[in-house]
Specification:
By secondary structure, the chain is an alpha/beta fold. It has a domain of 197 residues: Rossmann fold (3-Layer(aba) Sandwich), CATH 3.40.50. Helix content is 31%, strand content 18%. It is built from 8 helices and 11 strands. Strands 3, 6, 7, 8, 9, 10 and 11 form a 7-stranded mixed sheet that branches. Helix 5 links the parallel strand 7 and strand 8. The longest helix has 25 residues. Keywords: ATP-binding, Hydrolase, Nucleotide-binding. This is p-loop containing nucleoside triphosphate hydrolase protein.
C-alpha cells in the first residue's frame, strides 16, 4: 500500500459549459504528492486555482487526470475518510435558519462521535443552545468545523475556513489538527491567506501559480538552507528571501516572508501573461489619453446632480 495520501501528477482541469466548447484551463500540470501524516499549506494568489484543486481532491469535480486520494480515484471511487470544509457552507440557507446547534449536530450524527464532538465543542468554544440564525459568522463557522471534524477522517481538505475565527480559537484548532496528524497519521491540505502563527504548523508547502504548481511540489518545511554556503538558496525559494528568513533582527513569520515573495512573483507573472495576450495589463487603473472618457463616464457625468 502506498505511503502517499495524495497522488497528483500532471493534473489538468477546465470547465466545460453546457453546449459550449471547453474553456481555458483552470489547472494545468499540477503535481502534488503528499505522504500520510503531513500538513501542507497551499499558497497562491486569489484565482490561482486553490479552491478548484481542493474540490477536485474532494471528489466534487470530474477530472480524468488520474488524481488519487488514499490510493483511489478522487471522482469515480472517492474513498471514505476524506473531509472537505469550504467557505460556501456559510451561505447555505439551512444553516442560517432558526436551528439549534445541538439539534443540527445530532442531525449529522454527532451522537455517534460523542467524545470527539465534545472535545471539539470545548476547543471551538461552541454553545449547544445557540440558534444558527442569531450567531455571528465566526460562531457559525465554529459549528461547521465541529460538524466536519467530529467523525474521524484520514484526509482533511480545508479551504479558508479559519478566516472567521479569533486568534485563540484558531490556535487551539491548529494544535488539535497537529495532534491528529501525529497520533492518527492523518493528512491535511490547507489553503489560507493568513500566515501569522503558522510557522510551526506545516510539514510541507505547495506554491500554485496561475493554475500550475511550481517545483518542488511539495516543498519541505521548515526550509533548511546549506550552512556551508551562506549565499546558497533552495529550489523554490526566491532570491533574497533567505536573508529575510535568517535575519535575527527581522521580526515576524518566516513563512509569511516566503509567501509574500511567492505572491509578488505570481503578480509579476500574471501581468507578463496579460501583456503577452492583450498588449496591456488588465487590473488596476486604466490609462486614458488626456481628455478621453468612457461611455459610462460620459453618461453618469451628464446626470450627476452633485456638481
Amino acid at each position: 500500500m502506498s505511503d502517499l495520501a495524495l497522488e497528483v501528477n500532471a493534473l489538468h482541469f477546465a470547465y466545460t459549459p453546457v453546449n459550449a466548447p471547453k474553456g481555458p484551463p483552470v489547472l494545468e500540470d499540477v503535481t502534488l504528492n503528499l505522504p500520510k501524516g503531513s500538513r501542507c499549506i497551499l499558497v497562491g494568489a486569489n484565482g490561482a486555482g486553490k479552491s478548484t484543486l481542493l474540490q477536485i481532491l474532494a471528489g466534487k469535480k470530474l477530472t480524468r487526470s488520474g488524481a488519487k486520494v488514499l490510493g483511489q480515484d478522487v471522482f469515480f471511487s472517492t474513498p471514505q475518510g476524506v473531509t472537505y470544509l469550504g467557505t460556501e457552507w456559510a451561505a447555505n440557507p439551512v444553516v442560517r435558519s432558526d436551528l439549534v446547534v445541538s439539534h443540527f449536530l445530532d442531525s449529522v450524527g454527532g451522537y455517534r462521535h460523542q467524545e470527539r464532538r465534545d472535545r471539539l465543542l470545548d476547543i471551538l468554544d461552541v454553545d449547544l443552545n445557540w440558534h444558527m440564525h442569531e450567531v455571528s459568522d465566526g460562531e457559525r463557522r465554529r459549528v461547521q468545523i465541529v460538524s466536519g471534524l467530529m467523525a474521524p477522517w484520514e484526509v482533511l481538505l480545508l479551504d479558508e475556513v479559519t478566516v472567521d475565527l479569533d486568534v485563540l480559537v484558531r490556535s487551539r484548532l491548529l494544535a488539535f489538527l497537529t495532534e491528529e496528524t501525529q497520533t492518527r497519521n492523518a493528512t491535511i491540505l490547507y489553503a489560507t491567506h493568513i500566515f501569522d502563527g503558522l510557522d510551526s504548523f506545516p510539514t510541507h508547502l505547495c506554491h500554485i501559480q496561475l493554475g500550475t504548481t511550481l517545483p518542488p511540489s511539495p516543498l519541505s518545511w521548515p526550509v533548511v538552507f546549506p550552512s556551508s554556503d551562506p549565499s546558497a538558496t533552495v529550489e523554490g525559494v526566491p532570491a533574497g528571501v533567505r536573508e529575510k528568513m535568517e535575519d535575527p533582527e527581522r521580526p515576524g513569520s518566516k513563512l509569511l516572508e516566503l509567501a509574500l515573495a511567492w505572491l509578488a512573483q505570481d503578480k509579476e507573472r500574471r501581468i507578463e501573461k496579460e501583456i503577452a495576450v492583450g498588449g496591456t495589463k488588465k487590473r488596476g487603473a486604466a490609462k486614458k489619453a488626456e481628455g478621453e472618457t468612457t461611455d459610462s463616464e460620459a453618461f453618469y457625468k451628464k446626470y450627476d446632480y452633485n456638481n
